[in-house]
Specification:
about 75% helix, mainly alpha
Length: about 240
């Protein structure tokens, strides 16, 4: 167990939350407003092509594309892995899905604070959905914490722990590509991602990834898969 690393990441998470929570500090409010209005002024008929790109980056198809890219990255990582190949990465993937599900449930039941997205908090804003004819997301009744941010950061955390250098860099890039579009159209405040999502991951993930927990879970899944594979020839030979 890397206790010093766990505590360091937890302290960073708490400092981020404190910097956002203290009433005397307006840093995040100023930054949130500035980022939102900077991007929002670029949306409209005068920049229709850019507006269409932003709308496409916040569509369901783009979400599916990001998921496919994550699966492809894991497949590439398993191909490059000489320790256990695809079986090892199957175990890592199952462990990651279990972790993401537990974190999601914990956040849903523990975090009671919420706020609307900036496109709902301000009047007379430019909505990308008003300029395109396909379905896209540019607002949320409760945008805190950023759900896309949490899931993509969990993915990046696992890749940073188990992957090689190429996999790590690619996972960070995918996390940015998954979260940035929501901020750019005003469906999320910047703090929804950098405070909400990041602090949650800094507080919870180290206890999974910096302890033997994730490694043991992935090894157990891999061992179970190997047992199933060993039984398959027997079943095949015993068929009438």
């Amino acid at each position: 167990m890397k206790l010093s690393r766990i505590l360091l990441l937890n302290v960073i998470g708490m400092l981020i939350i404190t910097s956002w929570w203290l009433p005397s500090l307006s840093f995040w409010t100023v930054l949130d407003d500035a980022v939102f209005w900077w991007f929002n002024q670029t949306i409209g008929d005068d920049n229709l092509r850019w507006t269409e790109v932003l709308a496409a980056l916040n569509s369901r198809r783009y979400d599916i594309l990001i998921m496919l890219c994550m699966l492809t990255l894991m497949g590439w990582a398993s191909y490059r892995d000489r320790q256990g190949g695809w079986r090892r990465w199957f175990g890592i993937g199952v462990t990651m899905l279990i972790t993401a599900g537990l974190v999601s449930e914990l956040v849903r039941h523990v975090i009671t604070y919420g706020h609307p997205s900036p496109t709902l908090a301000f009047d007379e804003v430019n909505l990308v959905s008003s300029f395109v004819e396909f379905a896209t997301k540019d607002q949320a009744g409760n945008s805190f914490p950023g759900d896309h941010g949490i899931m993509s950061m969990i993915f990046a955390g696992f890749m940073l722990t188990f992957g090689d250098r190429v996999t790590r860099l690619a996972s960070i890039a995918l996390a940015i590509l998954a979260t940035a579009p929501r901020v750019m159209v005003g469906a999320h405040w910047l703090s929804d991602v950098l405070v909400g999502s990041l602090s949650i991951c800094l507080l919870l993930l180290p206890w999974v990834l910096c302890t033997p927990l994730a490694s043991r879970m992935s090894v157990s899944v891999m061992a179970g898969l190997e047992r199933l594979e060993s039984l398959w020839p027997l079943k095949k030979d015993n068929r009438p």
